[in-house]
């Protein structure tokens, strides 16, 4: 059931944000500003207060340019019109969902990134990104508060015969409070992404900084590593095996982190969470190794049921979430069923979002205060 649900989620990722028709200009407020995801000094793409996006590309010899949104490139898109100066411009036919979106340009049949936008790893390639300001963006905004540190580590992996990469968030004060030890959240990305996603697209570090500064959470470490998800090609998710990643995570990464960071190295102070396919990994690994984690969180990544937990695991928390445009009834019902069976289960539904990063940013904001109580 989980694999089926995830397959449906992947098929519907971000498909409603762009339309093929051009915008009715009379309905569009002309208060466009450069996207916060733009390359330094670049004026396009731009977004306005309604959530419309406007693109401009210089390509005098091109015959056709379409802006395509979504993992792998959704069908349709926003066609750009050519001007006399060789530039191409177009505005989305309607407002886009709030939050972060991947996109790319299809120029005369070839796929290219927008030279005006920064790139983010998603859909198994570096894609352009655009941010539609959210009404609740304050919780992941860059503020004048003490900031933690996100550092890259390379850890040995005998099972894959290489050194693997992870990113570790340590909260503000970690380097000064040299006697303090911290709980750890192992936080996984989704299919087609990598270990950079939660920091770059998800702003996990800023979410943590703000929550800590507001006194809403107990400071903890976050570890983000590559989940081997790209080994599953589109359409083959059902054949994906979590077992190799379980070995990397449990037998190699966790011991390395415990040896090199000031962690509270026990099950009671260790959590695992993941978005989408990272949730699928979280589900499988927490059930297979209930001795490792005490807090479980699936973000648009399926649900747990009492039967699969009985006799295997007794977590301190089960958190399940999704966007309101995904399958909120299933998430809510699963939490109720788990509560009735005696588990501490919490559900969260992100309003007016689908299978996208604003859903997962909000989910991290909601689950973080519940961890390590």
TrEMBL record:
Keyword Cell membrane: no
Domain of life: Bacteria
Signal peptide, first to last residue: 1-21
Record-linked CDD domains: E_set_Esterase_N (cd02858)
Keywords assigned by UniProt, alphabetized: Signal
Name of the protein: Enterochelin esterase
């Amino acid at each position: 059931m989980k694999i089926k649900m995830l397959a449906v989620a992947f098929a519907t990722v971000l498909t409603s944000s762009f339309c093929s028709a051009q915008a009715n200009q009379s309905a569009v407020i002309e208060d466009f500003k450069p996207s916060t995801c733009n390359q330094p000094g670049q004026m396009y793409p731009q977004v306005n207060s309604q959530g419309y996006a406007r693109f401009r590309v210089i390509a005098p010899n091109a015959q056709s340019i379409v802006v395509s949104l979504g993992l792998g490139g959704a069908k349709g898109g926003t066609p750009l019109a050519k001007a006399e100066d060789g530039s191409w411009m177009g505005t989305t036919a309607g407002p886009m969902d709030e939050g972060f979106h991947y996109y790319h340009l299809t120029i005369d049949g070839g796929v290219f990134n927008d030279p005006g936008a920064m790139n983010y790893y998603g859909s198994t390639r570096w894609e352009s990104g655009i941010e539609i300001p959210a009404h609740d963006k304050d919780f992941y905004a860059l503020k004048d508060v003490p900031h933690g540190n996100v550092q890259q580590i390379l850890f040995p992996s005998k099972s894959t015969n290489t050194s693997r990469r992870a990113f570790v968030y340590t909260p503000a004060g970690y380097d000064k409070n040299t006697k303090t030890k911290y709980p750890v959240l192992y936080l996984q990305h989704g299919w087609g992404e990598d270990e950079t996603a939660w920091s770059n697209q998800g702003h996990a570090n800023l979410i943590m900084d703000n929550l800590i500064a507001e006194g809403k959470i107990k400071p903890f470490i976050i570890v983000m590593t590559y989940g081997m998800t790209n080994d599953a090609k589109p359409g083959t998710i059902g054949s994906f095996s979590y077992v190799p990643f379980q070995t990397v995570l449990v037998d190699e990464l966790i011991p390395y982190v415990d040896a090199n960071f000031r962690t509270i190295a026990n099950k009671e102070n260790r959590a695992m969470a993941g978005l989408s396919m990272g949730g699928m990994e979280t589900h499988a690994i927490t059930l297979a190794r209930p001795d490792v984690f005490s807090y479980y969180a699936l973000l648009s990544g399926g649900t747990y049921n009492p039967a699969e937990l009985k006799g295997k695991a007794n977590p301190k928390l089960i958190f399940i979430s999704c966007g309101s445009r995904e399958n909120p009834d299933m998430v809510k019902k699963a939490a109720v069923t788990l509560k009735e069976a005696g588990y501490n289960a919490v559900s969260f539904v992100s309003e007016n979002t689908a299978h996208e990063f604003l859903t997962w940013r909000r989910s991290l904001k909601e689950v973080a205060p519940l961890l390590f109580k």
